[in-house]
Amino acid sequence: MRKSYFLTVSKINLSFLLVLVSGILFSQSQAIASKTKSEFWEKVQFGGGFGLNIGSRFTDITVAPSCIYNFNQSFSLGIGLQGSYVSSKNNYSSAIYGLSLISLVNPIEDFQISVELEQLRVNSTIMMIGAPNLKDNFWNTGLFIGGGYGADDVVVGIRYNVLYKKSDFVYNTAFMPFVRVYF
User: Which of 34, 68, 122, 146 has its CA 20 to 30 A from that of 164?
Assistant: First the structure.
């Protein structure tokens, strides 16, 4: 059952990605033909995140680009990609990659509510002295509900993963602060 659930979620995510890319490519071809900026591109914003944490025995690198389409001043919908590499020398390593769907609602000026569905593939290796390495490869689904305050294209807030499981070792806690920037 777990495998079919993740396959279904993955198919939904892939379908959404294909629809979004098709819309982008179609709009791009129209914009090139008319040599004017299309209405579609005027409503698209790009952003994302980058994280780097390096210590003497620890490395954590994350790249997470995303884009949103602003239907109006109050509602946006978008997609994001994420890739992370975490390593603790001679102890642990993990590669995490996947995509997310995000909806943003601004009920009042400067306040934003977000709902984000995230599907990640986690490939982990735990290194043990005198024993074979333990490998754990699985899909992790997160559903984040968040709120934040901001001005212009920057929002600072906190989000909560309602599907958080401590046993998955993907996140330390269900609560996560964020800084969201779109330009």
Answer: 68
